Amino acid sequence: MARPRALVFDAYGTLFDVHSVMDAARVITPDPQALSLLWRQKQLEYTWLRSLMGHYEDFWVVTGQALRYAIRRLGITATEAQVETLMDAYLTLLPFPEVPGALRALAGTPLAILSNGSPRMLAGAVRSSRLDGVFAHVLSVDTVGVYKPSPRVYELAPLALGVEPGEILFVSSNGWDVAPAEELDATPDYEVDRLDSIADKLGI
Amino acid sequence: MARPRALVFDAYGTLFDVHSVMDAARVITPDPQALSLLWRQKQLEYTWLRSLMGHYEDFWVVTGQALRYAIRRLGITATEAQVETLMDAYLTLLPFPEVPGALRALAGTPLAILSNGSPRMLAGAVRSSRLDGVFAHVLSVDTVGVYKPSPRVYELAPLALGVEPGEILFVSSNGWDVAPAEELDATPDYEVDRLDSIADKLGI
Lengths: 204, 204
Fold this sequence. Notes:
- Two copies of one chain form a homodimer.
- Chain A is of the alpha/beta class and 204 residues long.
- The first copy, chain A, has ten helices and six strands, in the order ββααααβαβαβααβαα.
- Chain A has two domains: 6-16 and 93-202, HAD superfamily/HAD-like (Rossmann fold); 18-92, DNA polymerase, domain 1 (Orthogonal Bundle), CATH 1.10.150.240.
- Helix content of chain A is 43%, strand content 10%.
- In chain A, strand 4, helix 6 (119-128) and strand 5 form a beta-alpha-beta unit.
- The A-B interface holds A 45-46, 48-55, 65-66, 68-69, 146-151, 176, 179, 182-185 and B 45-46, 48-55, 65-66, 68-69, 146-151, 176, 179, 182-185.
């Protein structure tokens, strides 16, 4: 693609490490990774199922339901306060180490987030990652009441940024955001292992 | 609920054991269970993602793409002929042991299948399970071009059977068919461990 006029980033798993909740999980289980993985898998499943059912609830609700499912399924005992502590970890997620630098290198182009997260969750993660002021727009699916990969979600970005869809580079670690590493008949323009490889790819 | 006027069954995982493909998988991997589980998980994910994207392909296509993903992800080497053999296993699935007897006990009420499967796949599984003639209707999502749990799928059953939705007992092993064991705000009328417990529950 030509040099993009805007860069739009997925949030969870792309900018923010959702498995950084493992520190909080260690208190209630000897296998925090199992909890973290199942929590994340169910969280995504619930976004797809709710979207298909037409029963939207925001990502905070979905994330809480997925956590409770995972705790129950893994036979973990957790108090209500411990569940709340785990949930709060989502408001203070850490970015992947290279993210702040990678974003600084790209700051000549307007940057945005387009995420399943609720506005409050995204504001929390941006703040805890010290990325305030970096993004021209922090866009949440909450505006359209349906989750990725509904086309209605992706339409939010060109609308907010005032550019054509083809002028946006969308950056995501999730196969289904573009269906690349998956087998869903779509291919990405670029594949990179780290976010700080993007500037190089674009020659900026 | 009152005694139902029709019983509608999910197919895969409810009547037919999808993990019976493990015999065929043993030829290409020492861990057929890992392949079977990832294949099934991706198969479901792809139905949800395609439905949300509005990119319907039938269940045969989706099942094949999920299999190829799982093979690649697990680093398995398989020839095209071996992939085809695994796919063919889906046309000759085995029923869970109690299924034929359970259905016979319920045969005084009209029985139907409502499934993600393509018509050809469902016909194959019904035949290999020696259940020909048992079902008044074998309904496929292919008619509406979207997968479960879209409400458009479930609407097929009362339409085909000529009864009200509330007069149908829908039987499924999948949480998301009713969202019971899951955390999605819905509860089933009954929960049973085996299909042959249904007649007792209904007092027939």
